[in-house]
Amino acid sequence: MKMQTEIPVYARTTGKHHSRASRLVEKVPAVIYGPKVQNTALLADELAVKKYGGRKFESTIFKLKSDDAKLNGQAVLFKQVQVHPVTRRPVHVDFYAVDMTKPIRVRVEIRLEGKPAGLADGGLLQAIARELEIEVLPTAIPDFVTADVSNLGVGDSLHVSDISIPEGVKVITRAEQTIATVSVVSEETVTTTAAPAEGAVPAAGAAAADAKSAPAADAKAGDKAKK
Predict the structure, then answer these.
(1) Across all residues in the chain, what is the average pLDDT?
(2) Strands, E, within the chain: which ranges?
(3) Are 15 and 91 contained in the same domain?
């Protein structure tokens, strides 16, 4: 399990005015909820949210550090972090209070391991899925899951059902989900120009050319009539 870093949190008074004032002192409005915790409004340290609120830490369990005895030491996950569209500063955080005795669903990184056999035949390894959704006890969340691609030849694919899963981990992602493939990239690109179908609207350039040639054709027809 990943290290349980502490996230400082503080009591919060709800309301837009209080939220704006809190951001001036680098505190982010937040809420904590969960099966055994009453929904509680609080403030989180902005520096900690910026550091740990990204996808890299979405399966990491943190501990709250608070003067409130009910919250201090509570295990949580960053469930959602809302950021300002311009400044990119966090504006609100949802913490999920984890019950350490019950399995939870999280996403963990898939790391490809080995050199595909198909590379020697001109193949190219392509990673299709980079995360795996699992259900596991909070104390047994793996940092990542390894997928061995060594046996992949040209045209082969590796699926979720092909990888080794740590004991105690239940996979939620579909077994047929492709994780990686080895394919050949063609160096030649064949470009063909098809004739327009009957009744098709001409391209802009062709239409312009036809428009220019029309007066000339009418003039010639007039000269023949006069003769």
Answers:
(1) 83
(2) 6-11, 27-34, 37-45, 62-65, 75-83, 90-97, 104-113, 124-127, 131-136, 144-148, 157-159, 170-171, 178-183
(3) yes
